[in-house]
Each structure stands twice: as structure tokens, then as C-alpha cells.
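Weekly structure sync - notes
Attendees: PM, LS, DV (DV joined late)
Agenda: review two folding runs queued last week.

Item 1: First target. Sequence and C-alpha cells pasted below for the record.
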Amino acid sequence: MLCDMSKSNEKSPSSPANAPCPNEDNESYPSSDEALSLPTFVAGSGTLDRLVETARDYAKHAASENTLKAYTKDWAHFSRWCRMKGIDPLPPSPEMIGLYLADLAAPTGKAPALSVSTIDRRLSGLSWNYTQRGFNLDRKNRHIATVLAGIKRKHARPPVQKEAILAEDILDMIETLGFGLRDLRDRAILLIGYAGGLRRSEIVSLDVGKDDTPDSGGWIEILEDGALLTLNAKTGWREVEIGRGSSSQTCPVHALEQWLHFAKIDFGPVFVRATRDGKNALKTRLSDKHVARLIKQTVLDAGLRSELPEKERLALFSGHSLRAGLASSAEVDERYVQKQLGHASAEMTRRYQRRRDRFRVNLTKAAGL
């Protein structure tokens, strides 16, 4: 629907001429038709139209599915907040966004205050959404930057880290699994995720071979000495080497081979759903939520941190517990752990190390005190 001329005259000079009209229902991420199309002064043709479709397809892969979902929710929340205040979310108003951030940190209603990291993420979501709608949000504007800096100074807390699943823990967890088809799959998920230091999304996005499926996040090659995983990760393509273990009971590569053999999988997604009777593997790829549920269930079944109430035990562990466990348990040079986890810096790797000798180098004594 075209904008009313009287409304268009009230727009900010920075608003693009062909920007979508502010609309109370315009909460979702702009459709590909809206985000990418031919300029109005260019006549369409078969070749150009095909290129537009290709560009739209690439645009859909500009961010991960989970990130896009989060950004969509961020925009929906901000749009509702604007409606309650009687304002339009478009074009961006740094003053109102500053007030929005303040309301997230110290809400006036019954809504709980958000953490600093969540508020920062919300702002990133708004910035991304404005860009998709043809606007520019200046995060350095004083109305935004100073409010955010004040929130961080007043409310920032050390990050709450998930408990690391150490070597003895993962062994206890896989001991709770039987030898049915689902158990073979879940054992392979835990061991491959642990030995590879993989994220939940990286585990379930694996395919058997390259280019098996359009939604693949990588593929595996099983070699004599282990498994080589090629991943399309956040920082780009990387390879993860998973060597064979000391015994078949704990070897992640053997567990993977067993699952693929008995599930009769030689093409497509590696980790898939099974039939209700647990006798056959289906073609449907597992969700990353399955990995989270699997970790929490086996943590309970193995009796980890049994001194705590069940609710607290469940809150301690997540998919990141596998990555933190590898970083904390592997007694090797730090740079090898950094490479396995795909971290750009050693400092990031150290954040995952829950059990390390922090006072191995004593600078106090070295300084003569």
C-alpha cells in the first residue's frame, strides 16, 4: 500500500524514498520481495529477474536460522513497545531507542529486567532490522551510546558460565545409554560433540558427504586415524579432526561408525530421527534442541552434581558444557584447543577452561616477594 502524501512529508530527511510505510503489523523481518528487488527505473527481464531470485536466496543465508529468529523477535518486541508509547518504529529515533534500552534495564511494569548481554543483543537485532528496511541506526549516537554505557556500568555482572562436562562425566553419561538404535545415535552425538568441541547446531547440521543437502552445515570423512569434519562455522569454513579413542567403548569415531552402519545411513543428514519402535532411522534431521535435551537427561541419569536439586542441576548444563568440557579436560598446548573450538583468540578459549591451574606462573614470587 502506498504511503499517504501528508505522512511522507513528515518523514525524516534521512528516510529513504522507497522505504516501507510504518505499519503496526510490520513486525516481522521484511520479505525477500521487499528487501531485494530491481530499482524502479530498471525494466525487468528474464535474466535480471533470475538474478534477483538468486540474490534473495543468498540474502536468506546471510545469518544463521537461529540468529534470524532472534532478530525477528527483537523487532516484534520493539514494535509492540513503540505502539504502547504511541510512536512509530520507523524511521529510527535514537532518543526513543535510548528510552527503550532504559526500559529494558529498569522496566516500569511487571516485566523482569534484562541482562546487559541480552540488551546488547536486542540493540544488535534492531540495527540489523533497520538495515534490512533501508535505514541506518547509528549506535554511536549519544542518546544510545551513553545510555548503554551507563547500563553496562551499573548492571554488568560477570557472565554465568555453564558447568563443564569433564572426561569422567561424559563416560558416566554414555553409560546410561543402552544399545538400541536411538541409544547408538545419542552415544555418537555426545562423544562426537565432546571430542570435537562442537556447538549443538554444528552437530545436527552434519551430512555424510559434501553437498548432500541444501541445509548442510558441513560433512564428515571417516579415515583410518579418525574422522575429519569440515564445518561451515560462524567464522568461516574450518576443519575439525577427531582422532580414534583408546577403546571402542569410548571412541567417538567408533560410535559414529556404529550409528551409521545400523541406521543404514550413507547419504544426507548424519543425525536423524528414528521410528517410534526405534527400529529404523528416518530422513528427518534432528533439531539442535535434541542435543540440549539429551545432555540434560543423561546428566540426571548419571547423577552428576546429585547434591543439588534437580532444577539447579538442569540449569547448570547445556550444549556449551561439551565445548567447555573439552577445553577443560584436554591436557595439551592451548593452541590446539583453540584450533579445535574454532576460536579467533586464546582469550576466548580460556573462557571455556573451567579447570586449569590459574597460578601455574607465580609473578609475585618471580618479582621477588
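Item 2: Second target, run right after the first with the same settings.
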Amino acid sequence: MDFLQSMPRRWVTVYMPLGIFVFVLLFPFYWMGMTSFKPNAELLDRDGNPFWLSSPTLDHFRKLLFETPYPEWLLNTMIVSVVSTFFSLFASVLAAYAIERLRFQGARPAGLAIFFAYLVPPSILFIPLAAIVFNLGLFDTRWALILTYPTFLIPFCTWLLMGYFRSIPYELEECALIDGATRWEILVKIILPLAVPGLISAGIFAFTLSWNEFIYALTFVSSSEVKTVPVGVITELVEGDVYHWGSLMAGALLGSLPVAVIYSFFVEYYVSGMTGAVKE
């Protein structure tokens, strides 16, 4: 690492690439925040500075929170994301434990099949799923989303937890079997406490995917009071060819905060969980 000791080389090899990366990563959030606080006069002014604002306002947030059903969209998104994440984690834990720890014949092909199921794009599945949802009488309800989101959450969470369960020593499980523990006791009292970082990583990914999902929410929900944030912001704040950019950006900014807060609280477990998932 001697090439990093001199300041010019450090600027070229560390600071400049890191600065470019941070700029590219954070600029969309900066633009979103600037637009959400700009008054309409500044948004439509071609002579003004597009990268700065002179008269910040909260009118867009007031319109979003008090003149649109945005609070209901936010509540719907939270309920659907939390419930579908818990359902998916429960099923994924059972599937990943069975595939990686029980060592039955065909476990490896089953794991590959689950991974390939995750690769199927939602644009192919939403048509047959729409027919199933309609026949079950769940169209235009939260349950339509809660029961369809696990179709893409469970394969991904199972694949992630398989990698993490593989990193837990088998000797712990064998000792517990010798002492008379059942498989369920081993899973609850030994495997799950050791797999907390992996569970948090899978939960964060599942929550993020369900929070940002658009195609299923657009297809299975039509009433304004049942819509989620991604669909509600796009369909309710765009009137024909008129885009309410201030309210759109304010809705996107508020909608991204819960995911950012979750990542900031569990970032340590998230990193360690991903590290354990990729280890052999």
C-alpha cells in the first residue's frame, strides 16, 4: 500500500474516485430535495439557477399531505411491505434450512430452481397472477399485494439465507442432535440466533423490494385509498401532460426516508449478513 502514502497519489487513487462516486450517488437526492422545496415560480423560470433555490417553500409538502391521499398511500405501503416481508422471511427460513442443513437427495437442484425462480421477471408473471387474484376476489385490496409479493421475495430471501446457513458449522447441529434436541429446537435455539445478520439482510432486501414494487401494485389495485406510494405518486400527481414536479419530488423524498432509516439502523448487521451469505 506504499502507493497511497504520497498526497498526489492519494488524491488520484482515493479521493477523486470516491468524490465522483459520492457525487453520482447523492446528486439525484439533492435534485429531488431542491425541487421539492422550490416554489412553482422558480420551477418554471428558465432564467433561474436550476441547481439552487432562493425562496424555499413547504407548499408542495402541504399539498401532498393535506390535499392528496398520500398519508393513506404511505400507510398502505408500510402495511403491505411489513406483512409480506414477514411472510416471506418465515417461508424462506424453512426452505433454506431444509435445503442446506437436512442434506436430502435433490437439495442442490432445489436450491438452483429457487434461484432461477427469482430470475423470472415480474412482467411475465403479473398476467397469470392477475387472473388468480381476480378469481379469488382479492382485486383492489391490500391482500392482493401481500399474497403476490412473496412470489418474488421468497426465492431471493431463500437464496440469500442458504448462503448464510451454509457458513454455520455443522458440528453445532450434530452436538444438539446428540443431546436429544429436535430439528425445530435446533432451528429456533441455535440456527436463528446465529443467523440474525443474515435474517436482517434478507429482511432489508425484501422490505426494499416490496416498498418500491410498481408493476403488481399498478395492476392489482385501482382505488386511490388502496394504492401504494410508487403507484399513487405517479397516477395521482400527473394530470394528462401536466406534471406537478414539486409534489412529485416531495412524495419521492418522503417515500425514500423509511428505507434510508432502516438501512442506517441495521447497516452493521446488513454488511455482516451479506458477507456470510457469499462465503462458502
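Discussion on item 2: The longest strand covers residues 238-239.
Action: LS to circulate a short write-up before next sync.
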